[in-house]
Each structure stands twice: as structure tokens, then as C-alpha cells.
Write a structure and sequence with these properties.
With about 325 residues, the chain is an alpha+beta fold. The protein folds into 2 domains: about 10-105, 2-Layer Sandwich (Phosphorylase Kinase, domain 1), CATH 3.30.200.20; about 115-315, Alpha-Beta Complex (Aminoglycoside 3'-phosphotransferase, Chain: A, domain 2), CATH 3.90.1200.10. About 40% of the residues lie in helices and about 15% in strands. It has 9 helices and 9 strands. Strands 1-2-3-5-4 form a 5-stranded antiparallel beta sheet, with helices on one face. A two-stranded antiparallel sheet has the order 6-9. A hairpin with a 2-residue loop joins strand 7 (about 200) and strand 8 (about 205-210). Helix 3 packs parallel to helix 7 (about 240-255), helix 4 runs antiparallel to helix 5 (about 165-180) and helix 4 (about 145-155) runs parallel beside helix 8 (about 260-285). It is globular and about 60 Å long. The relative contact order is 0.13.
């Protein structure tokens, strides 16, 4: 359950009063998510999302995330809008945690991914990248190659508890990726965590993107590679080339990919698989007994890493 900080009715009423959004009639903790405490707030007039930022989110990064979401919303992309108080404050404090109130997005995230989900996502991801080109904020990607190296070192001694030979396999992949990682692809602010549970749909319409708390400055094509991993594998871990083709085609229809970006796609997808393998592995090995949040299986991303390692070129992703 992703409610780490409890909020009493009295504390919530005091927090909500400066927004002038009406009397609170209901609040409910949201169980999904793993990083922050989230509540669905219902007032007499509308619904809102209250987020309390927990220790894994750096307070100094919050202005970047919040102004990015405002920028993206102003560009016409449906994302939660940070709401100001009457005095213009967006970031506040509640129960010892930084906190912000957001507009409510209608929709549900897809539990079963269909090809049309991937097609809708590709175009929206490209629109997001075009929108962030005019955003002046910058934030380094803490989970790029240097971050992978730190995680690999932190998990090396126990990695083989998850899969035999995993520590050596990670070290080999990390060495090759660090050596070959591109330096000069088109870059800007990316989402960097656009998994299905961060994308809402109403019927067959993509209705919004959420959870920008890994957003950073990196290659646009790397963001696409993250989505290839998150959206284009089946539950049995088989790669679905139709989904990948629709994702990439719809992206390219909005923002064309350069030849260099296309050529780098297998390497970027391999790097994205290693990134999520390592973060999942770290959480798996450091999961406190009795914790509410169940860590995700790192072996899922080990299978994806092995797939990308065997890819011969962009055509294997359906690129024509």
C-alpha cells in the first residue's frame, strides 16, 4: 500500500482550506504506486489528488517536477495540474512531508496491453518530447550509466541469490553499455518511467500521463526504448513486434527519428532493460520484512535484457 504518511481529517481540512475548493467530504488512500503517499480527495465540487513526497524523492527536485507538469499541461497534454493556493503556493508541507495538490485525471491504466494502446502511446510520447523542447529546466538522469554502476556494485555480492551467474552477467552488460553508450543523440526532458500504470485511458482514448518523478534530461530515443520494454512484451516475456512497430510508427509520425536514433535503439533498449533490472534487483534484495509494498520481480527485466542483447538491428523492432 502506497500510503506511508497518515493524514487525519483535521490535518487535511486545515491543508485544504487555503485552496478555496470547497469542503472536503471524503478522502481515501491510493494503494497503487511505490514512491509517495497519495490520497484521492473529494470536495463538494470536484475530485483532487493529494501527494505527500516521501524520502526517496529529493525536496530540491520538486520545483523541477512541478513546473515541468505545468509546462506540459500548458502545451495541451493531459497531465495532473499542480494547483496553487489563493496565495500562489504550489509546494507546501503536511505532516512533516512536502505536499502538493493536483487536478484529477479521468481514466484507468490498462491491465492488459493491446496493440492500439501502444499506437496511442507512441504519438503522445512524441508530443511530450516536442513540448519539453521549450522547457528550460534541466535535471541529470541519476539512473543512467553512472547510476547503473553504483547499483551493480551495491547488489554484486547477493545478485546470484536471484539467478545463478547474475552478478557476472550484469557486469558484462554494464561494461559493454558503458563503452558504447551514445553521447550526441537528440536530448531534452523525458518522462523516463512511462509504464502502463502511469498512462490512463478512457475507452480507446489516451486520457493522461502521470508520475513525472523520474523525469530528467536524457535522449528522447531512450524514453522510447523504456516504453518498448514496458509495453511490448507479453506476460510470458515474449516480445510482440506488432506492438513495437505501432509504438515506433506512431511516434515517428509526430516526431521523426534520425538515422542515428534508429541505429541506437537496440543499445538504448538494452540499457533501459539493465536500468530496471538493477533497480528492481536492489529493491528485491533490500525489501524490509513486513513492508506494505511488494517489490517487483527483477527476473522479468533479465529476460528483456537477454532479448535486446540478441537483437540484430532496428528491424527486429518492426522498424521499416
Amino acid at each position: 500500500m502506497a500510503v506511508y504518511t497518515e493524514v487525519t481529517d483535521e490535518d487535511l481540512a486545515r491543508f485544504m482550506q487555503p485552496y478555496g475548493l470547497g469542503r472536503v467530504v471524503a478522502s481515501k488512500g491510493i494503494a497503487e504506486g511505490v514512491e509517495n503517499s497519495n490520497y484521492l480527495i473529494q470536495t463538494e465540487d470536484a475530485n483532487f489528488i493529494l501527494t505527500l513526497y516521501e524520502k526517496r524523492v529529493r525536496r530540491d527536485d520538486l520545483p523541477f517536477f512541478l513546473t515541468l507538469m505545468q509546462h506540459v499541461a500548458a502545451a495541451g497534454i493531459d497531465v495532473p495540474q499542480p494547483l496553487p493556493t489563493r496565495d500562489g503556493l504550489v509546494l507546501r508541507e503536511l505532516n512533516g512531508r512536502p505536499a502538493a495538490l493536483f487536478s484529477f485525471l479521468e481514466g484507468l491504466w490498462p491491465r492488459r496491453i493491446h496493440p492500439w494502446h501502444c499506437q496511442a502511446l507512441g504519438g503522445t510520447l512524441a508530443k511530450l518530447h516536442l513540448a519539453t523542447q521549450s522547457y528550460t529546466g534541466r535535471r541529470a538522469n541519476d539512473l543512467s550509466v553512472a547510476g547503473w554502476r553504483r547499483l551493480a556494485e551495491a547488489t554484486h555480492e547477493r545478485a546470484d541469490e536471484v539467478a545463478p551467474g547474475l552478478a557476472a552477467e550484469i557486469a558484462a552488460d554494464l561494461g559493454e553499455l558503458a563503452r558504447d553508450w551514445p553521447l550526441d543523440l537528440p536530448a531534452g526532458v523525458i518522462h523516463a518511467d512511462l509504464f502502463p500504470d502511469n498512462v490512463f485511458f478512457l475507452d480507446e482514448r489516451l486520457s493522461g500521463l502521470i508520475d513525472f518523478y523520474f523525469a530528467c534530461t536524457d535522449f528522447y530515443a531512450y524514453d522510447l526504448a523504456i516504453c518498448l520494454n514496458a509495453w511490448c512484451f507479453e506476460p510470458d516475456r515474449a516480445f510482440n513486434v506488432t506492438k513495437a512497430q505501432l509504438l515506433i510508427q506512431s511516434y515517428r509520425a509526430v516526431r521523426p527519428l534520425s538515422d542515428a536514433e534508429l541505429a541506437a535503439l537496440p543499445l538504448l533498449a538494452r540499457g533501459a532493460a539493465l536500468r530496471f533490472l538493477l533497480t528492481r534487483l536492489f529493491d528485491w534484495l533490500n525489501h524490509p520484512p513486513g513492508a506494505f509494498v511488494q517489490p517487483k520481480d527483477p527476473k522479468e527485466y533479465l529476460a528483456k535484457l537477454r532479448f535486446h542483447r540478441a537483437v540484430r538491428g532496428p528491424a527486429d523492432y518492426g522498424v521499416q
